[in-house]
Amino acid sequence: MLKVKDTLRSTVNLTFDGRVIKAYHGANAQERFDQEVRVLRHLEDHGCHFVPRLLEADPVRLRIVTTNCGQRVDHLDAQRCAEIFQELEKYGVRHDDADIRNVTYRNSDGRFCIIDFEFSTCSGSPRRSRRR
User: Which CA distances in Å does 46 have to 18, 35, 66, 98, 130?
Assistant: First the structure.
């Protein structure tokens, strides 16, 4: 396993088979865990294809396992970054930490993706119909 993030709020590891394991700790860990799980489930229910898929959620250990959305992005035009996060709002979610550190690039389809939803807000009302 490769540790990719270790902060006061969370630890993120990447497994050799490509899954992402995020453990929450520190202030409001339970609330942040609950919010990220809620938002990821909402996005999956509404067909959002440029975010991680939630594979497991363990409320006892405050840990989630998701799919990998590619590599972190080092450089991205501010306007393009804003457009990516605006696209997320079409699914009824505001990221509330719209920063390049939460953008990845998925080589398999050439798509910018968004990660890290623990501070996001979810209106529950996407502004467009579900894609199939």
Answer: 24, 17, 17, 20, 5
Q: Model confidence over 43-61: pLDDT tens digits?
A: 999 999 999 999 999 999 9
User: What's the CA gap between 105 and 122, in Å, rounded?
Assistant: 23
Pairing relationship of beta strands 93-94 and 71-72 according to DSSP bridges: unpaired
Stated pTM of the model: 0.89
Alpha helices in the chain (DSSP H): 29-45, 78-89
Query: d(Cα 58, Cα 120) in Å, to the nearest integer?
Result: 19
Determine the topology of domain 2-122 in CATH. Answer: Transferase(Phosphotransferase); domain 1 (1.10.510)
